[in-house]
Amino acid sequence: MTAKIADDLGRLFEVGFNIGILSYIHKNNLKNRFGNLYRHELENIKFAKIKKRIVDKVISKLEREIAETWCQFFLQKGFLSGLNFFREYLKSLGCDEIPKFRHLEILYYQCRFNGDNSIGTHEINEKQWFKDVLSQLENLEITSQDIDIYKGRGDFLNADSLILLKYRNNYRVLCLDLSVFSIHTDEDIQNIDYVEIIRRLLLRDVSYIRSKSVFSSLRIDTESLGLDFSPSLKEYFTAFKAKDKESAKLIQAGSYIYSFCQFLEKTTIIPNISKLVCNAVGYSDRSFNTISIQADNLDILQTCYQIYKHHNREEEITNARYRVLQQIKRNASKSFERGEEFVKSLLEITPDTINILPRHTETITDFFNSVATVPPELISSLGLTGNPNFRQAHNQLIKKYLLSEHTYIFLTGNPGIGKTTAIVDFLKNYQDEGFLLFYVSPRKQVNLDIIEKFKSQETGKLVDDRIFAINTHSNLIQDNRGKLSVAYTSNQHKNDFRLGDVHFLNSETVERKSRRKDRFKHITDDTFQDIGQKTKGVLNSICEALYNLISSEQYNQIIATTSTQSLKKTDYGDTLNHLEKIFCDAYSTPENKVFPEKMRNISHRIKHLLIMIDEITGDEGGVEFLDGIQKIVKRYQLANPENGFNTKIVVADASIVDKNVIRQHLEDTTPEPNKVYFRTAAANIQPLSVESFTFNNLPAIIINTNTYPARSLTINYQIIIESCRVTDKIKLIDESDLKKISQEEIFKEIQILLQKSDVEQFIVYIQDKSKLSEFIDKIKSELGKDNFTKYIHYLEIHANISEYEKQEIKKYQESAKVVFMTASGSRGLSFPKARHILVEIPKFEIEKNLMEIIQVIYRGRGNDIIDNQDKYLTFYLAERSLYYQDNPEISR
Questions:
Q1: Measured between alpha carbons, how far apart are the two ends of the chain, in Å?
Q2: What is the pLDDT of residues 772-825, one digit of tens each?
Q3: Which of 94, 197, 729, 890 is least enclosed, having the fewest CB within 10 Å?
Q4: How does DSSP assign 500-564, residue by residue?
Q5: Measured between alpha carbons, how far is 690 from 702 in angstroms, rounded to an integer?
Q6: Beta strands 502-506 and 497-499: pairing type?
Q7: Would you tell me the crossing angle of helices 738-755 and 769-783 to the nearest 10 degrees?
Q8: What is the C-alpha to C-alpha distance for residues 288 and 179, in angstroms, rounded to an integer?
């Protein structure tokens, strides 16, 4: 076989990919301007003819049969890839339902089924062909000279797939440059009728994917951060364009988009090109890389254009890689105390072995303590009273703005600063005016903890007899035969009761007898059938309960908590529709009209309407909950002063601190890929700040606190690196000792801290629950079971702990010396005596786990004396470093 066959198969993949996209467009009757252009093209190409021309390049009968199989394989794979990619792309725009397709129009679609893509079986007049393609862009005079200009290297007429579309009032250009990775040389074209060969090819792809960093799938968000990457991208893209095919193809796609945008701007096809969103995709049969920017950042794609058009020499790639490495070294050195020493140890690892690097330590003191007194200038500028510390000042500001004209309050302060405590304090102070607190978060335990904040520590009862709190979950509803059910907390009620169709069950009855309906139906003497169980939903139950409590006019201090995980998609929309029930008595659906008198009748009893979404980025449903809430507030005019409510939508999250990020990612419910937000640090970052802006056309405020509960923070970095040469021969089961050695290092530190009498308590955070159990068993075997007893000596916190275990944890929260926890247990609990925290950095879902790590390092807090002492963090990162040996110059 010849290498030419590999090129031909790549063209078949491209043909199949575009057929897949066109099939989706045709099947869903998407409005387009290309008419029958591609239908006629496809009528003129014959797959059998193409296949014969490819197969004729080989001699032996066996090789011909193998080549035929690969031809069919790549055409089919391309078709399915294109079909699914375009479907998912439209879904990412929010255009995922047939009714929404009427708002979509494909203004321009460019691909080719002739020339080289037909393997020479369908030749046409190229200039006439491109004139026909460009005729989709109406009222344009296209000349042969124009074709020559935009047919040059890096220009858009060379694009594999180029689409300009309009969805509602937004324009997008999507460009894909396609390639196949499976076939490089003649030897790669093997008989895939054999399972072992397929397995080997799959393992090769697995090897490549595993060689990528955990950060390779993350998105860098530049739109709201004012960063200009274009100068440094030239070096970076040049350095990695040779060996990483997806990156190389991404550069080509970016080049084509830049050229196309120049054409659009010149011809004024789009009224305002700065609002055009550009999506460049380097797509291969194993993976893809993307860039998504607005056209006002075209200089990034201009960099791609310059690289692809002018830079192609191998020596430039080698030199660029060296310069990129030097830049990484310089930047890393600046990020750490004694950074040069740290970076040097990283670069001096021994190949093909596990390296335990010397522990790197740095001490940070230039931060503000959470219990430190706020500087006088900040007290004055923020309008604070007294001489508060930062926690108290944060509390003051929240209470102040809960009485302001701002509808949205974004609390973006660090974990543990007292966001929810301030809300609770406010409602306690104004409970005579009546309130409804609707609290939503992804953590079920945190939701229950909110109710606990309204209880007296001395009596364990609610601080006021008028307060009525409700919560529910799916198991509670199932236990009550699937009926509308909530668990309530009240000082005045003891027994279960009904209000409307809702069953109110006393939450103090922890061991409730299960009453789940038998799901099995007796069909015949020896046959049973699972008929399932119809149950009312969580949001349905909580909203019906709120409606009945409000309409009864007996309950004017109400707390309702639920989880973002209760949001479910249905055939009729989603379960957020149940929110409309709460105020339905004061609204006429047929007339789309609010009854002000009825609204004022409610607000006269329940003045303060607070809806709080905590940890909004902690679950995919958080943003959708926010969107549902704002629609209810708008429809029922709850923010209208005439209706008498003090309505506040409180959004709390430690991971968002910038108003532009809030607008960009919380105003829109469109699904987004994993990403990490970062920005250039300002020269003078304030530890406490307030900023006004507009969100969803309503006044909003951000209250941000940037502190840590310690006098100084000593951070230890224990890095363990396994250096491995990349090879196609990889096993699905990881047989490395990296995990074992990492555990041993953590275990050594645990033993040292256990023996120190001056260490009252420390936290060990490990995301893997089974690994936590291994640690505990190992310590028990070392110390003896009697010397390491649960609750007395250690606590174990994860998602699956029972209600009894939760109560025991609270009881021994300050006395147990070791607290083992996973991410599921890291929120909502504080351990005031913990001054040492050991954290194993997870190597999966990095964008979520970075936030969990931030949360866990704030778990040691709550005692003002200890919070004013030195604290210690130790990070354990065990990672595999993969290198290529095939080209020493590029590998270095």
A1: 34
A2: 888 888 888 888 888 899 999 999 888 777 767 777 888 888 899 999 988 666
A3: 729
A4: TTEEEEETT--SPPP-PPP-EEEEETTEEEE-------HHHHHHHHHHHHHHHTS--EEEEEEEG
A5: 6
A6: antiparallel
A7: 50
A8: 10
